Structure formats: C-alpha cells, structure tokens
Amino acid sequence: MKIALGPILYYWPKERVEEFYADAARWRVDIFYLGETVCSKRRALRRQDWLAIAGRLRDAGKEVVLSTQALLEANSELLQLEQFCNNGEYPVEANDMAAVQLLAGRVPFIAGPHINCYNGETLALLAGLGASRWVPPVELSAASIGALQGQRPAGMETEVFAYGRLPLAFSARCFTARADNVGKDECEQRCIHDPDGRPLHTQEDQRLFTVNGIQLQSGTPCNLLGELGPMAAMGVDIARISPQAEGTEAVVRAFRARLDERPAPELPPLDYCNGYWHGAPGMAWHGNEPNPG
Amino acid sequence: MTRIPELVCPAGALPALKAAVDNGADAVYIGFRDDTNARNFPGLNFGPDDARKGVEYAHRAGKKVLLAVNTYPQPHNWPIWTAAVDRAAALGLDAVIMADPGLLRYAASRHPDLRLHLSVQASATNHRALEFYHQRFGIRRAVLPRVLSLQQLWHTIAHSPVEIEVFGYGSLCVMVEGRCALSSYITGRSPNGSGVCSPAEAVRWEETPQGRQSRLNGVLIDRYGPGEAAGYPTLCKGRYHTEGRPYYAIEEPTSLNVLDILPELVQHGVAAIKVEGRQRSPAYVASVTRALRTALDTCAADPRRYQVREEWAAALDRLSEGQCHTLGAYHRPWQ
C-alpha cells in the first residue's frame, strides 16, 4: 500500500508551506496532493508557486497531483479551476463536479473525497469519464468501501482518508471570521493564525468540531493506523495522511512501519476518532487498542 | 414579459399536499416513506396509495407533483433506490428530484421520458457543475444550495443550461447541502446516507440546576436560561465556544425568507421558488403557501411598486425558527 499526503487543509504562510514540502520530500511518502482546496481568498501561494513545489517533488521522485477547490461559487474560482485542469503536466484531483466536467474524457483524474461517490454505479460512471483513482467520502464505512471494492472497475485505485481531522462540511460563511465577530469580506485571512484550525467546544468543553475558515472538520483527528491490515486485505491501494501543523513526519513513520510490518513508533497521545470506518458515529473510537488520548 | 416563478411547496403527507394545492402552490414535492429522500422522519411521507391520491388531487387542480429521491444509495441498499425511481415513473409524477450520479444515470437510461430535476443535495453551486448533470443525464432543472450571493446567483442563472430553482422560505441549511457530514459525525446518520439530520432518536432533553439542556447522542448542543425559548437541537444551531463565552458559532435559529428580494429573483429569471419543510404541519404549509402566493401575485402585477406587506412578513415570522428571518448567503454580510 502506498502513502499519500493529502492537500494542506489549513492556511499556512508561503515559507511554512515551502519548508514543509522541502522536509516531506525526504519522507517515505509516495504521492503528494498540492493546492488550496478550501478557500480562494487564501492566496499566499499562487499557481506558479504550487507548480514550483510540484516540480521539486517530482524531481525527488514523487508522484504529484494538483488538488482543486471543493466549493466553487464565483466565476473567478471557475477560471482558476480551469487553469489547474489545463496545467498539462500533472493529474488533477476533482473535488466538485465542475472539475469532473472540465476533465472528463480528456485526461485521467482523481475523484477526491468531496465527490459524492457512494455506490458502484457512480464509481463506474466516474471510471468511464476518466477517473483512475477515487477517495471515498469520509463517512463511508469499511463495509461499504469493501462492497465497492468488489464492484470497482478495472484500473481504478482506492485511496482512504486514514489520518487527520476529517473535512466534514463547507459553507458560504466563514466560521473563523464569525468567531472573531467580523464578516467574510473583512476576514483579512485571519485563518493564517490557526495552523491547525480553531477548536470548537461544547459548553462542557468537549471538543466538537474544528473551525477552518468556511470548512468544519472533526474535533479530533481520524486515525486508521490500526486498520491498515484490514484495509490492505480489501485491496485499498493508498492511505491518505492529512498534513497537520506539527508531527506529520511521525505519523508518516508510524504508518510506514505498520505497512512494513515493523514495530510502529508511538503517535502523539491525542484523542482520536475512527467511528466512520466501523459504521458508527464518526466521533467514536473503536478498536482493540485504547484511544491513545 | 417576465415569467413568474413556480411556487414549489412541501408536503410530508396527504393533508399537507392538499393544503399546498388549495392555497396556491404551483407544484408540491413529496417523498416516499423510506430513506430514499432527505426528510426520512418517523411518521412522515407517502406510501404508494397516498402518492397516487396526491398526484390525482394535484393534477385535477392543474398542479404538479415532484418526488424527491435525493439521498445517496450504498451497495447494500441500491435496489431500494432504483425501485423508488421505477415506482415514480409509473405514478405519472411531473418530475423526480435526484442527487446521486449513478441513480441519475439509471433514471435517464431506464425512463427517458421522466423529467429529472437536480436536487440541492447534489451540491451544484456553479454553471460548470450544472453543465455536467445536463449533458450526462438531461436534467431540466436544478435546485441550488443556499450558499450563493445574489451576484453569484445572477451569473449562474445567466450561464446555466437548465432552469434554476432557489430556496425562498424555511429553516436554513448553513452548510452546502450534500456536503455536510456533521450529523453522521455525532449520530452516525446524515442527510446523504440516511435522509436525516440530527435525528430525533438521538435527542435528549434534561432539566438541570444550570437550566434546560439539549443533547444529541450525548453531546451537549445547548443550555437555556429560565424563560428562554428552546429550539430543536440541530447541530449547526447549538451554542459552542472557541475560547470563552458560548455563542451561535455556526448559525442562530432562524429561517430564510426572500420576500425582500422577490422582484429581483423574478427579474433575473429564477424558474421556481422552493419552500422548505416537508416535516411541518398542514397548517404551516397552508400559511406559508398563502403568504408567498400573495407576494408572488403582487409582484407579478406590478414588480416596480412591489413592497413587502407587514402582514405577510408577520405571518411568516410567526412560523419561523427563532421567530426571525434572514436572507442568508444572498446577503453578502451574512457570509
């Protein structure tokens, strides 16, 4: 099984992004997804900057995919999407049907986690349009993914979101700006100060969600390290690790060790979730091992 | 001459369908009694007999019936969804509202004469996505998620290959419909998979020394002071905190209401205005339908002199979540 680093879901300064990928080029990661998928107001890196990072990773022998935005509202966002889809060098991860429309029948593409592919007929449709890989929606269980593995078209790879805070929802509203009592038009990209998003707690201080601009994520990171065995057994090709502000290298090491059947180093002692995989509420933790938190 | 948008009203059962038809709806949308539609609530929706009676009643009055089969089937339950589409085709309905691409393909190939509308659950927020569904499945109309500002809406309508239906009144989804897994994260059931959000079986009310509390699968959604009105604990309308004082971190309990911008919606060619609320009572459906019918007719008679009358606004606010209303994403500062 291969390891992929998903797109950075948070807004980091340009230098931090470049340093992150300079480091990550040396990790045992096979596939890199690059680009801004959440908010078009995050412009620290321009298209040329992403392409420069892509070039360096490719020179380091990595597979590179350009990820695209999930919620496309403005015409300027569609034009940006077209430029990414027409890049001519790298495959593209579609996260909206607009991207599928632009890519279909022209170049192979990856159907990302925000394309609602819940059944074999949709998977076959996407394959017919040129999808060579798909990432199931985060709420799909192992049982459903397993059933879909049995129906998957020849040549279709499956990649599962295996580590990181789950992207659960998108809105027109910016919840980071709202937390500071300003509107989205006055946001001044304040999410750049939350490199891991901003925790949202209940009135009993239970960590419920994570605010990431117009996106809400799970409160705790999803961690499927303990499920890599069953995942491999059902023929999943790739485990996706979603970059976090700190400790991503340790996560990559742990996943790689487990895949190599070596003793895995300890992960940071956090509260994790893996409920979706087990067909339970996503926030739940199931398994033989206690939650490290 | 500008076309007046169709008024599309909800019905969770036969009495509500009749109320909608009798009070001026041009079309009524319904769902079957299972998880093939996004309002899969206990005691709600239409069995085969009621669906047939509903279609007869509406058609006698010259009105349409639309059926929502707008959730996402999974491998183990796929045949239930295709059976729903087949039944819909046999019922002589005016259109089926769908979201799942695989199911849309099934319907388009198996029932080529069936009129297809794209559900809001398909999350199509731009004209490229609309082109996709139009070219692949021949959809004739799309319901847009409640995320576009008015400028974005006008642009989308101008470039869309299909008719556009927008939400006009009712409880407000803050998230892009079809892209929200908040409910399954907490309860295991979501609109996409099960046709429910914040399902009733997961709700618990408690009276405590701190006040009345609402929980969803054990998670505290809100805590109410003495005399404070308590609303249904929908996840996105709870009070949470980032650091410090709890606030409506996602959205206040409020309803969308487009009365203020009706002439603009008409002028820019919106084909239909949808009222949310298949879970609401026949009395609710009757009141909302009557208010919007009157407003639309007034607007049609003389769009330039159209003004929201106090009694329409008051009637709608009484029925609103939190007794207040918003323009939602249409109004840029809301975002």
From TrEMBL, chain A:
Give the cofactors, semicolon-separated. Answer: [4Fe-4S] cluster
Picking any one GO molecular function of the record gives: 4 iron, 4 sulfur cluster binding
Q: Recite the UniProt keywords alphabetically.
A: 4Fe-4S, Iron, Iron-sulfur, Metal-binding, Ubiquinone biosynthesis
Pfam families in the cross-refs:
Peptidase_U32
The record's InterPro entries line, in alphabetical order, gives: Peptidase_U32, RNA/ubiquinone_mod_enzymes, UbiV
User: Which residues are [4Fe-4S] cluster-binding?
Assistant: 39, 174, 187, 191
Q: What does this protein do?
A: Required for O(2)-independent ubiquinone (coenzyme Q) biosynthesis. Together with UbiU, is essential for the C6-hydroxylation reaction in the oxygen-independent ubiquinone biosynthesis pathway.
Among PANTHER family, the record links this protein to: PEPTIDASE U32 FAMILY, UBIQUINONE BIOSYNTHESIS PROTEIN UBIV
The subunit structure is:
Forms a heterodimer with UbiU.
Supply the name of the protein: Ubiquinone biosynthesis protein UbiV
This chain's source organism reads Acidithiobacillus sulfuriphilus
Gene giving rise to this polypeptide = ubiV
Automatic annotation (TrEMBL), chain B:
Q: Which organism is it from?
A: Acidithiobacillus sulfuriphilus
The name under which this protein is listed is Peptidase U32 family protein
